[in-house]
Amino acid sequence: MATVRQDGDTLAFAGALDRACVVALWPQVRNASARRLDLTAVDTVDSAGLALLAELCERLGIAEVVGEPSGLAELRTAYRLDRNLAFAG
């Protein structure tokens, strides 16, 4: 199960960001205030996890995404997202 904690202006995620955890994590983060996402303790990301992260980046105006868990690079490419999970065109 994935977890998230607020550390100053950073939301730090851990575990596997997958479909099973997104429903549980969304209420914890939807009203958060952050400028950075820390994914260094995330094992893997699936498309549901990517959707959660991309939505947070958009809503919060995330300036930096740190970490490269398994699956993230491939999903970013497939969905044409840049390193900060914004649409790259």
UniProtKB/TrEMBL annotation:
Domain STAS: 37-89
Protein name: STAS domain-containing protein
